[in-house]
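Order emerges. For instance:

***
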Amino acid sequence: MSKQIVCYIAVLSIAFFSCKSEWSAEERSSVKAKCVEVNQSLYLHGRADSICECYLQKLVERYPQNDQRPEDILPIVNECAAEYPLTIE
C-alpha cells in the first residue's frame, strides 16, 4: 500500500503543465517517460508502460487544454491502477 501511495504522489508531481493551450508532443512524451520511470519497479511484464499509456490517454482526453489541477490527477491514476493492479515482487 505504501508503494502505491508513493507512486501516486510521484505521478501527481510530474503532470502539471498548467496554462497551456494544448498538449505538445514533448509534454506527452515527458509525462509518459516520467510515469514509466516512477512505476517500473512496481509493475512486472510491461504493466508500467500500459498504466502510463492509460494515464496519459485519459489525462489528455479529459484535459485537452492541459489545464488540469493537482486534485484532478489522482482519480485518473486510480482508474488506470485498477485496470493494471500492483504486483508484489
About this structure: Residues 55 and 67 are 15 Å apart (CA to CA). The mean pLDDT is 78. Helices lie at 2-14, 25-39, 47-62, 70-83.
